[in-house]
Design a protein that fits this description.
single chain; mainly beta; Mannose-Binding Protein A, Chain A; 2 domains; 2 helices; globular
Length: 177
């Protein structure tokens, strides 16, 4: 189990009777728990090119694709037929983050389940809110989640089931350079 605690704080210098003190105002604390219990059987190799996460209910494509731009990743997942299922999609950044194993490094994933995983970036379907020419990716070298320009090439790992989106992610006609 990996526990990540992010603390956002601001410092303010206060002077009292000639003494300078620093006072910390906590603005926001986020606890993000990532449970990846592959050693206890949370990840199950289905023997058909898929892996089921029994904690999240997500079914994953076991072996990732070659690299491609974000739009092609959406199309690839939407048209994937694997293990008698045709409802594959590109995972959002939170879903993709559930298979990060922070106890591992280069790559930060369980290679006994997700073998042949490159320690590189993998596309998510989540678009940057401030700049729609960028989308979030998970970098499995150390488990970082950051953004990338949609025309860049990254690996793809499809997912199915789990939480249901209210609307599918639309496939754009083109991405502005």
């Amino acid at each position: 189990m990996a526990i990540i605690c992010v603390l956002f704080a601001t410092l303010q210098r206060i002077t009292l009777r000639g003494n300078s003190l620093k006072k910390i105002f906590v603005l926001w604390i986020i606890f993000s728990f990532s449970f990846l219990e592959s050693a206890t059987g949370a990840l199950v190799d289905n023997g058909d090119g898929t892996v089921t996460d029994t904690v999240t209910g997500l079914m994953w494509q076991q072996v990732a694709t070659e690299t491609m731009p974000w739009r092609n990743a959406l199309i690839y997942c939407d048209t994937l037929g694997l293990a008698n299922h045709d409802d594959w999609r590109l995972p959002d950044r939170n879903e993709l983050g559930t298979i990060i194993d922070y106890s591992k490094y280069n790559p930060a994933i369980d290679l006994s389940i997700f073998f042949k995983t490159a320690p590189s970036g993998y596309w998510s379907s989540t678009v940057y809110a401030d700049d729609t020419n960028n989308a979030w990716r998970v970098h499995f070298y150390a488990g970082h989640i950051n953004g990338s320009y949609k025309l860049n090439n990254h690996y793809v790992r499809a997912v199915r089931a789990g939480h249901v989106r209210s609307e599918p992610v639309p496939i754009p006609e083109k991405i502005e350079p």
